[in-house]
Amino acid sequence: MASLPRSDDSRFGLRRQVRLAGPIALSSGASLGPVDIAYETYGAMNADASNVILICHALTGDQYVASDHPVTGKPGWWWRMVGAGKPVDPARHFIICSNVIGSCMGSSGPASVDPATGEPHAMRFPVLTIADMVRAQAALLDHLGVKRLAAVIGGSMGGMQALTWPTLFPDRVENCVVIASTARHSAQNIAFHEVGRQAIMADPNWRGGDYYADGLVPSAGLAVARMAAHITYLSEAGLTEKFGRRLQGRDAKTFGFDADFQVESYLRHQGLSFVDRFDANSYLYITRAMDYYDIAEDHGGSLARAFAATRARFCLVSFDTDWLYPTAESRAIVHALNAGGAQASFVELSSPFGHDAFLLECPELNRVVDGFLRGGRA
Amino acid sequence: MSALRPDLALIARTVRPGARVLDVGCGDGALMAELRDRAQVDARGLEIDASNVAAAVGRGLSVVQGDADTDLTYYPDASFDYAILSQTLQTTRRPDLVVEELLRIAAQAFVSFPNFAHWRGRLSLMWGGRMPVTRLLPDSWYDTLNIHHVTVDDFRALVKERGWHIDGQWFLKGDRETTHANANLFAEHAVFLLRR
User: What is the CATH classification number for the domain harbouring B66?
Assistant: First the structure.
């Protein structure tokens, strides 16, 4: 049994960071250690440690799932799902959210300093996979004294981690919630990521990734990468509803290349604000990890075999306007789970917001997740 | 029993405690919840309507959104003790293939459907010359989900033709069970328990 966290236990609370000795054996064959993990915890572990929920974040997300972001000042990225009176509630759950390795919010990544050289790793950081991110989370749980997760929950890339959890650690997960996600990255997914990476690497400031010394970062390339990706997070109908062909702060077209349209202005803003909070090399590493993601491939081509060893319950949710990870991807997972006799639930919810729907107001999503967790007594 | 629909209550009474059950067209999961709570049944559901699925998952049930016509193929052979298809048969594109699938997936299958040869319907057609609109069949011909109208005798003929076996049959008139005699004329609703 895990020791109960006391309120003065420095392992628990907001804005935590730990250096784990490791090394973590990576999918590539390389190893990583020591490993820094930045994380937050909310609520308290109960006496039999049966209320622990791990939240996994998406590509550009972070550990600030339900607390204000230190850079942007915005509320936690999933405050609609995690918080008082929400499906994941610190009053009932002990909630952990950690920054994935490869990222740039305090966990080891290309921007962090290699203790061996005293310099940032940059592109000398090992290439990671989604499974490696999960292995790092498991190491964090060991540090926190958590043996089993009542639930692991994630959307998008967070869903990939959540789905990977029971394949790597079948006995450590009781309930698995995978939202707007997939069991493998499609050719189209990889293609969009490659556009983003090429934009970064084509920026003259990128310089093979060694841009940390003088602060001249490849912000133009990273902004373009973010703009291209952002389009994939929205739906055509959503963009039309939000912007249509409306002009930005002007009455007529300028017959130039300024941001005439509101949608252009919006995307430029998304790109520019992103570079203030994200490292371009991390963007390369994390998108690569997502591209390498294919759970079936890791299990002899059989998705069903990947889940053969787990007793976990699964809940999958897709959104009808999500064309990045469309419903068919979730269905494929459900069919594999059915084939293996796993307890699986799946629903396609309706939302105008495309892939981003999982982060936005969706009472049905909360109802499904809440009911699923309570049904599993998580 | 709670306020289960009569055909569902009948099925709930008949399912063995602790059995593995697939409820095809499970709606909001009322029957599954009853089976789970009263008989420790390991119940799984398939349901086409998203808000029904959300309601069922909200009850803590394992329900997958899908279509009986296309998604049963993903369930392995003999993986359940019972499959249940209640008031869904007549809405499928190929009812015969759906029942074949149920009997592949499960050792036994409950199939319940409204009897289109009930005398009220016959009178409606015979004297009114109009497609029947009754308590059990409340929709007009143009907006009904029922695309394969079936009678008790039609179903028995199909069972015979396919060589399935009838392990049980129940007939309902209103909320009450009625006699087997002349069920094709007097039953509003039929429940069959089949095996291959």
Answer: 3.40.50.150
Take residue A89 and report the two structure tokens written for it.
């509630």
pLDDT at res. B167: 97
Work out how many domains chain B is built from and give that number.
1
Cβ-based contacts of B54 with chain A (< 8 Å): 347, 349, 364, 367-368, 371
Q: Which residues form the domain of B88?
A: 6-117+146-195
Q: How confident is residue A7, by pLDDT bands cut at 50, 70 and 90? A: low
Alpha-carbon span B29 to B53, nearest angstrom: 8
Model confidence at A377, pLDDT cuts 50, 70, 90, reads low
Interface test with A, best of B47, B49, B53, B62 (most A CBs within 10 A): B62
Task: Please enumerate residues of A whose Cβ is less than 8 A from a Cβ of B.
Answer: 313, 315, 331, 334-335, 338-339, 341, 343-350, 364, 367-368, 370-372, 374-376
Q: Which residues of A touch B71 (CB under 8 A)?
A: 335
DSSP, res B67: -
Interchain CB contacts (distance < 8 Å): A and B: 68
The per-residue b/e assignment along A211-230, b for 16 or more CB within 10 angstroms, e otherwise, is bbeeeebbbbbbbbbbbbbb
B161 lies in a domain?
A: yes
Distance from CA of A15 to the nearest CA of B (A): 33
Q: How many CB atoms lie within 10 A of CB B186?
A: 17
Residue A73, token pair as written in the block: 């000042």
ipTM for the complex? 0.89
Confidence class for position A152, pLDDT limits 50, 70, 90: very high
The model's pLDDT over B85-94, given as tens digits with 9 standing for 90+, comes to: 998 999 999 9
Q: Is B63 on the interface with A (CB under 8 A)?
A: yes
- Distance CA(A139)–CA(A158), nearest Å, equals 17
Question: pLDDT by residue (tens digit) across A8-44?
Answer: 789 999 999 999 998 999 999 999 989 999 999 999 9
Nearest CA of chain B to the CA of A300: how many Å? 19
**For position B181, what pLDDT does the model report?**
82
Inter-chain touch B54–A335, beta carbons under 8 Å = no
CATH fold for domain A16-185+292-375: Rossmann fold (3.40.50)
